[in-house]
What we know:
mainly alpha, two-stranded antiparallel ribbon, 4 strands
Amino acid sequence: MLLHNILNIFKSILMVLMVLTSLHSSEDKDSLTAKSLSLYYSEYKISQENIVESKILKPRVINFSNYLFLAVLEIDMPEKDKLLSYSAVLSLLGMKNKSLEIPDKYAELQHIILKETKLIINAQEKSLSPLFNQEIDYKQFKIPKRYKNMSEYYRVMKFIEIMPLDINLSSQIEETINESQRLKNLYNAIYTNLNHLKGSIKPKEIEEYLFHIPEYLEYKTLSEKSYKQIYLNSGYDYDIEIVKALIDAKYSKEAKEYYKLMKRDISYNKSVKLNKNITKVNPNLINILNIMIEDSLTFSHTVINNKIDLEIIKRLKRFREIAKEQR
Length: 327
């Protein structure tokens, strides 16, 4: 009798657990979580930024590298050997299996130009730069998987970003650009795109935003080196605001994960698919959704014809309405 009663109790407990598990599974399926939202949105941003880089920035940057070399050849400027070498390397990096014709009077520079270019393309070692006469870590030019199909673009941008320019060379480059309307137009267009993609938040501000809350994020410092990858990383301003909003809403793990993804220095290959029939959204996500919607609208200014992605905005707004109803 006692055994029979115990078995009945176990059966009752088991039935309750099955019901609870079913309810929990249904709730998870119908609910929008902070984790699924942040992963979904970061994946969306990466895909859109890839479009901007491949369709808009890449052709502008490659054209700029070629036009700068041609402008340097034409400009009347004393002591421009280093400028010509710099622009020649930049032009070679932007080419695919093409050679560059150096005027006879600059033939002695060809060895420097080709050696510098070879070190960059090989991307294997630290070495004394033949052009800048400083030690350079050429491993920085190793092509990330994300840029496998845009290697020329990556090398040109990385060369502009990390190579040390003295005051004289900087002035000569600026003068050359200002002498050519075509170069000025290209430079301004590239700068506008990059300024939107990289944002305006400075490293110190990022530390002030995030790292005064050590229990939320394990990062103690943000290296200048990682932040200086501004040309190849994407929109920090809104990303930082999303991380802040996640922290404020007590989603510490999600904030940490989004922060890792926003730096674009790790690979994330999972495809996030949200249930089309979401019916539950925590009101804590409203501010996060507000920021994402504004970011999506702002991002339209960087794409061809200022085309707004109405689908992502429609979906985010629907989530926000559901969250407001459940306050």
